[in-house]
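Run log, item B.
One chain of 162 residues. Sequence copied directly from the ordering sheet:
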Amino acid sequence: MANRIFKESQTYIGTWVMYFIILTEVPILILLIVLYATSEDKQEMAIALGVVLGTMALILSLILNLKLETRIDDDNISFRYLPFIRTWRQYPKAIITSAEVIKYSPISDYGGWGIKGNKTTKAYSVLGDEGILLDVGEKKKILIGTMKSKELTGFIENWMEE
């Protein structure tokens, strides 16, 4: 397996989360435009419309810019969760006592998707219910979500044996 690399990139673009946000924002915008058109105080409604529109744009741009990137090479398992974790967090093979692809319940096990956890267990996920669970010693576990569990399972088994 020398010089093999596993890469995965996950975003919310094209998922139900993005469409849900858009479907909730559009009726609100239509309502505010109708209120603006029928309002007597156009200046006050313009300010309200601007604030709501700005907030919605910020939320949508945050969701569209979230990205979980995973990279596994011969020496390290690395990941970053943009825009919150910009630098690669690397876990050298030497400190990883176990690594396995698991199926988990995001809501009951970790409280949902995103960046979750406490001092001993951290979870980084976008969507789905599968991930790679790393035991990095000192009672510390890291879960990195994946959408390529079949491909990752074979890769990790070979990676841990070497």
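Observations after the first pass:
- The two ends are 8 Å apart (CA to CA).
- The chain has a mean pLDDT of 87.
Flagged for discussion on Thursday.
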